Amino acid sequence: MEPMLLKPVGKDYLWGGLRLKTEYGKKMGMVPLAETWECSTHPDGMSTVVNGEFAGWTLREVLGRHPEYLGTKAQGELPILVKFIDAEKDLSVQVHPGDEYARTFERQNGKTEMWYVLDAKPGASLICGFAHDMTRELLKEAIENKELDKQLQKVDVHKGDVFFIPAGTVHAIGAGALVAEIQESSNVTYRVYDYDRTDKDGKRRELHFDKAMEVLNLKSGVDVRQKPRMVRYYPGCSRELLCRCQYFDTERIQISMAFSFSVLENSFQVLLCLEGEGQLEIGGQGEADEGRGQGEGAKKADALHFGKGDCVFLPAAIGRCHISGRAELLKIRC
Q1: Which DSSP category does 196 fall into?
Q2: Which of 23, 161, 165, 223 qualifies as a FRET site for 113, CA 20 to 30 Å off?
Q3: Is the separation of the CB atoms in 218 and 100 below 8 Å?
Q4: Cβ(282)–Cβ(2) under 8 Å?
Q5: pLDDT per position as a tens digit, 18-55
Q6: Rounded to an integer, what is the distance from CA 281 to the centroid of its chain?
Q7: How many domains does the chain have?
Q8: Higher-confidence residue: 295 or 153?
Q9: Which domain holds residue 278?
């Protein structure tokens, strides 16, 4: 059992930019590069293991061979998908269904998600919910008259902001936002409005008004910005819980020298490096956060180097982990 450095899959959606290439080292030929799916077993884009025993395997293949790597909380498949998103232009106004609807009609999970804003150009904003209560008729009229903008709740965004977007919430990431997204493992999106844009073949992208109406929350939006949480400081690092929901927990870890923690049998963990670099060692010394000591069967392994933009999958029960270096990480588990 060993940590797995992952190679992502890229997406060249028309609203993307180049920052994932220039700032996060994503060596992909596609232009633009809108998203990279960093930790994914979804059929529409599967991460590949770079190092160790399973080098060259997709993460889906590894977990098919070793379902115990997911931990006791997951039910047969990786429940999350981790992305970087570079919105050079506005994304479509859209909504994702909840689990019941998506599993019934799309044979996928629903999609509740969170965004951590990595950077935002001056004036960047997000759409999160409606400005006031809506009806199907009002929404349809607003779309047809190209006045939907007046009906939507817009929120200015800045670096470090955190947003939680439950399934059923109308939303869109605005131009100029660079975001890390943690979501349910799903690729079901219903576009409500797309600014009459055309794809590379000159065709307007499909809208899904009827399906969207089945799942939209038409009540006025609430503030989805997550309130500041307490930062806990330790020798060599700090920890801040960004988001906790039924699907995932996400922490922000700032490492100035070292950070130790344990990965127990209940859940895998994912590390997403946002800044800096470090060395990850299994069996390292120091204080654990989820439990004491090592998981059963964990063994000493060569240190794994990671840097800005890298994503590492840690199998459940891998035990005590020790990171040294200077880095900012998101640490995710179910």
Answers
A1: T
A2: 23
A3: no
A4: yes
A5: 999 999 999 999 999 999 999 999 999 999 999 999 99
A6: 24
A7: 2
A8: 153
A9: 231-333
